[in-house]
Design goal:
Layout (H helix, E strand, L loop, with lengths): L2 H21 L4 H20 L3 H24 L4 H25 L1 H32 L20 H13 L4 H27 L1
Length: about 200
């Protein structure tokens, strides 16, 4: 919901952090892949109930997700880079609930599975609209530098990370937190479905 504001605020900071990376010849795709690896490492950390380590890995993934775009803007942006960035993001988002499922199957399984199903709703409405918007040439003023058309909603990247942080800080409350966040995600899905349908009409 506040991603456009955060993007504008953080862009100068990320650009300063990206300059030394670019100077070392590291490409945006390298940062994307490294960040994805950090995110996936959170799954075994969660399974072992090492929630502090998992939180560090999750935050590392998100920092890398911001840095790869900054590196790309300082060098060369590409649709291929944007493509793998989006694919890895969606896998990462579902991987974290899966990690909590492994941490305590009896307590967390239903809530984690429902949240993963929920992410299918937010992801499908996002990606399907992005594909058609690209075909139609629909402008995306809030995210002019993105490879895909970004459709807003109540639960975007920032809100998802806040939820993941809460999961790690209070793992004993995961079922309630996950189901509450899932409800907001379904509201986002409904809003995107409605607005996307009528926009394309």
């Amino acid at each position: 919901m506040i991603d456009p504001f955060l993007n504008k605020t953080l862009r100068p900071i990320l650009a300063n952090l990206a300059r030394p990376i670019v100077a070392r010849g590291i490409r945006a795709d390298h940062v994307t892949i490294a960040g994805f690896g950090l995110g996936l490492l959170a799954v075994p950390a969660l399974a072992l109930q090492w929630y502090g380590l998992a939180l560090v890995l999750i935050l590392g993934n998100r920092v890398a997700d911001g840095l790869d775009g900054a590196v790309a803007r300082l060098t060369t942006t590409s649709d291929a880079g944007g493509y793998i960035d989006s694919v890895f993001d969606f896998i990462f988002y579902s991987a974290i609930p899966f990690g909590f499922l492994l941490a305590d199957i009896e307590q967390n399984a239903v809530a984690a599975a429902f949240l993963m199903l929920t992410f299918m709703g937010t992801g499908a409405t996002f990606l399907a609209f992005a594909a058609v918007a690209s075909k139609r040439g629909i402008d995306n003023p809030n995210y002019p530098n993105k490879s895909l058309h970004y459709m807003g909603g109540i639960t975007e990247g920032f809100e998802t990370i806040v939820a993941f942080i809460a999961f790690c800080l209070w793992p004993q409350w995961f079922p309630i937190l996950a189901l509450s966040f899932a409800a907001l995600c379904w509201l986002t899905t409904a809003i995107r479905l409605w607005s996307g349908y009528w926009t394309l009409r």
